[in-house]
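Re: Re: ligand-bound prediction request (bumping)

Still looking for help on this. To restate: I need the protein modeled with aspartic acid bound, output as structure tokens. Inputs repeated here so nobody has to scroll up.
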Amino acid sequence: MIVMKFGGAALKNSERVKNVGKIVKQHIKYNPIVVLSAVGDVTDLLLEMGVKASHGTIDNKFFTEIHEKMCDELNIDFSNFNSLIEDLNKTLFDVKKVGILTPEKRDVLLSFGEKFSVKIVSTYLEKIGLKSRAYDSWEIGIITDSSHGNAKILDETYENIKKFFEKNFTPFSKIPVIPGFIAKSFNGEITTLGRGGSDLTASVIGAALKCEEIQTWKDVDGILSADPSVITNTKVIKHLSYKEAHELAFFGAKILHPHSMIPSGKKNIPIHVKNFLSPNSTGTIISSKTDEKGEGLKALTCRKDITLVNIESPEMIGKYGFLAQIFTIFKNLKISVDLIATSEASISLTLDNTINIEELVKRLSNFSDVKIKRKMAIVSLIGIHYNSPTILGKIFYVFHKEKINIEMISQGASKVNIAFVIDEKYADRAIKEIHKYLFEEKIPLEVIM
Ligand code: ASP
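Reply:
Sorry for the wait, this slipped through. Here it is.
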């Protein structure tokens, strides 16, 4: 059994849906389970519709047009969608009535994107001679907590999915087409798993059923060594460990949901990132296989709009419990910390949002000197740095040559990532140059210097 996940770009128009049908057909012997995002940019559109409704305007015209056109072109009767359209309108009217798009209502609204896409694709698969059925994700047993907008999948989900498939599926029965991203909480409310969450749904299903592979189909040849919108000479990464992929997603590569590697990683199910525009290219495999020496350096990422917090206090020297005191404040204010570097008398750390920051500064200032720097960027190198003196030498050379100050350095314990915090305005320049020296031109350090 395999999971095949197709994102919005793979479903952007009727031609793309036909292409998805072709790819699924080619994989029929592996017993595919299809997981889908909403069509194209429909999730963004639904968000806009929700905001408009909260300001008093109901407008579902574009949403309806997109799906109706697609159905017409695929020869699917759009009247099958009447009750879904009615439900969508009801949700929009509810939002208009209360004048606010609450997190609960937002999740209900966003769920219509995936509800439409699974119905369209499953009907189309039937049209091309494949047996198929669309399911709701809660029907197959996906259950979450009630943190709307970023819900956590509960452990019982895995057993639920397993039981559901054992009961309802024999190999080569109907292809299940399942919405990614959306779920229901234990109290029956619709929830969503965070943007890009259909990768996570695919990973959870793959792990629950111990599938041979989870394929995620994108519009690029695999995971690239850097963001192609900044760097032209990127390379496709052939293989990543789960840890590397996790760091990569967390530190800015938009290729996979940052948590989607966790369920599959725990069960050792490979994730195969493939290109739906060129299905025969090899793509990127994420698995537990560790790389041999020489394949260590994988990617360069950049995450912007970071806040750097520098905390200094002579009281730290030789004392115990000081760090606990600091992090209790973060805990109480529910602020998540990303990178940390400490010395005997100071700590630097980064945050990716600034909610509660005034209160944080106030509380920390009671016993330390606090400085905040906004608009920072984390430039991060992913991969095991077997050759680290040379690699680091080249990176420092770039910062020196470009006259860019480094505000903080952090290397995680897993040693698959080293991160540099710099002013956001220099970030693109820095990654272009670092990519050139580390991924494009293999010039020895001695020659560069
Ligand atoms: N449709 C959702 C989004 O746009 C989920 C996904 O695409 O994975 O974020």
